[in-house]
Design goal:
Number of helices: 1
Structural class: mainly beta
Shape: extended
Helix content: under 10%
């Protein structure tokens, strides 16, 4: 398979060979607060990602390209899309804890 993918590099048909396993996050009962009003309890899912920064100067040289922090977006489990700007989901602040005692 690796050889086939390498031979097809740059060829649009290569995309047919790229497979991904669908990630199914756990469903958690939660509430949203929107404009100061708390929603009814809903079944929600969370998606974790990373904030990054990419800046160039006027010549196109990269000035900064780095990950700057975690991002958690929570949405109703029935939603296929997850747009924060359109009000479908909300940005959360993750809290990372160690499972080991110090």
């Amino acid at each position: 398979m690796r050889e086939t993918l390498m031979e097809l590099q740059g060829n649009p048909t290569r995309a047919r060979f790229i497979l991904m396993k669908k990630i199914t996050p756990p469903v958690i009962r939660n509430r949203f607060v929107k404009r100061g009003v708390m929603s009814e309890e809903l079944e929600t899912v969370a998606e974790i990602g990373l904030y990054s920064v990419f800046c160039t100067d006027s010549t196109g040289s990269i000035v900064r390209n780095e990950v700057v922090g975690p991002l958690v977006r929570t949405k109703n489990s029935l939603e296929n899309e997850g747009g924060v700007l359109v009000g479908i989901s909300a940005i959360d602040s993750p809290l990372f804890v160690s499972s080991h005692d110090p």
